[in-house]
Design brief:
The structure is a homodimer. Helices cover 25% and strands 29% of the residues of chain A. The two termini of chain A are 22 Å apart.
């Protein structure tokens, strides 16, 4: 009997600008050993997320960079297939930050068992995981929406944007989404209940489109994108507006910060706030967030969408697709 | 007996770029009539403040623009010389937002009597007035300094900057000021107790100077200036840093927002906050602020400096001087 092999994806080169498939490499390795206190986890789904682009540069930000020739790590949902921990049994479904591998051996304290009841287990990577909590805390804690206010979301058809818009609707806001295709803008309006949506790729005058769709100005701008789209919103900010900086996907493949019109004069005259955050800032409140998001799902107030690519070998392609606008909703990779 | 004449300064032209003296005109007018419920106020001091530049453009921001050929208005300290109100008597010293005139007639409800006891009455335009409250609320409510944190102040030798640095010292912070002359930087260090000060006009590498003087990074940046100086600070922001946008004096004479490196990526990776404000946002707490500032003065914890120009006719020159760095501390005009 031949010993079973494992596969994993390593960072072969640091991407320059837009990542390419040959920045990654799929390699065969030995199966990891499940030592005392550990579990062997078979990957069911892995998550590709825009923030991972930052880790591919050799620079520490709020998180350490990926190392060259080492496994890419990220959010995983998997099944325990072997256990040497009393905390977990074979068959348990867990989520953790693990390698892009078919199988990971992990300390049982580093994985979290998930309840397969309320929603498909893959949602632990989306609405009931990091993107869900990002939308929840970013919008509610920084944006602080009030009924009747106008909320604009960029990257509106992505994992976070789709949820931000829906939560803003739950809070009684007027919601305008900005996305990159008509399929997406129609989805936002007709499926998710956004009040309006702008296809930035086909709209000649974004400023005018924003003025038309935000007749009372903008109270909250939830920014996943940055760049020109954000520039167009600054002049529309209302007094005491809040700009929630969640992502800057338009900038991630640049070598240094782009030049743009300064935002400070706009923020100054409107007593407006701009605040960056990462979901880890709210680690101690994640249970609250998951509970509320799960309740909204069960009450049918919140819909979620997953965009699934099959096969570990296609994870790099799925990751790159985040930057070319391939995904509608949460992009995940089905591994097994 | 010839009837006494009044003088006032009107906005003759809307400045283009840097204001010039011929954008203003001194004219003679009749003495205003002190009607029922009003007081006649002889101007002792008038205030010139950077925010007034914005009012000289024909655009409404948080405040309406000055009208062409109409009197410039701003903070005034004056003496009641005639009264038709039971609230005030002749000889009372008052402060109000009134015209740049020798004499103003004002509704008694629009003026506030000041106690000439604790400090010279001119301080109602500075440390015990708008600039004092601006420093107090901007630093404490938005900056939220903690002992041991590093605070950088631009426009450090101005009316607001001098107070921000001293209040930050009271709160136990390391304070670095940025100003435009060696006289100013020496004053900040030797008179006001700043830990370090940078002369941006003579320092070739501001980034390096900031790194050297802020070895633990920057927790609070109190920004009166904007532009290149602010750009140099962004890469030094610490996790959860706060950027208090108080002024952008480097930008006020520009016709449209200047281009600069985008700030969003810096704010994002540091979960940092940038917030604009105006002192009016704290109108309901101004008594608290004045009380605390007066207490710090009496405890000798807070020093103030006034830069006095004499004569109503020199008010435009004093105003223009704000943009060329003439003033150390609060710029006021002694009218009578």
């Amino acid at each position: 009997m031949t010993k079973k092999k494992n596969r994993e994806i390593i960072l072969a080169k640091r991407p320059e600008g837009m990542p390419r498939e040959d920045d990654f490499r799929l390699i065969e390795t030995e199966m990891p050993e499940c030592k005392d206190g550990m579990v062997l986890v078979k990957t069911l789904y892995l998550s590709v997320d825009p923030y991972m682009r930052g880790r591919m540069n050799g620079v520490k930000t709020y998180i350490s960079p990926f190392e060259l020739d080492k496994t890419i790590t990220g959010g995983i949902v998997g099944e325990v297939v072997e256990t040497r921990s009393p905390d977990l049994k074979a068959g348990d479904i867990v989520t953790a930050n693990l390698g892009w591998r078919d199988y990971n051996a992990a300390d049982s304290r580093e994985v979290r068992k998930i309840d397969p009841g309320p929603a498909p287990v893959s949602t632990a990577l989306g609405i009931l995981g990091m993107p869900g909590l990002t939308a929840y805390f970013g919008l509610l804690d920084i944006g602080k929406p009030s009924s009747g206010e106008t909320v604009v979301v960029s990257g509106a058809a992505g994992a976070v944007g789709t949820l931000v818009g829906q939560i803003a609707k739950i809070k009684g806001c007027r919601v305008v989404g900005i996305a990159g295709s008509d399929v997406k803008t129609k989805y936002l309006i007709h499926e998710l209940g956004f009040d309006a949506a702008i296809n930035y790729k086909t709209t000649a005058d974004i400023k005018k489109a924003l003025k038309d769709t935000c007749p009372n100005g903008v109270d909250i701008y939830f920014d996943n994108v940055g760049g020109d789209i954000s520039d167009a919103i600054m002049p529309l900010l209302n007094f005491k507006a809040r700009v929630v900086l969640c992502g800057q996907i338009s900038q991630y493949n640049m070598n240094k910060p782009e030049q743009g019109p300064r935002v400070q004069p706009y923020l100054l005259v409107k007593s407006a706030l701009m605040k960056g955050f990462i979901v880890m800032d709210y680690a101690d409140r994640s249970e609250e967030g998951i509970r509320q998001l799960a309740q909204w799902i069960s009450q049918k107030k919140l819909k979620y969408t997953e965009h699934v690519v099959e096969g570990l070998e296609n994870a790099p392609k799925a990751f790159i697709g985040l930057f070319t606008g391939e995904n509608l909703g949460k992009q995940i990779v089905k591994v097994s």
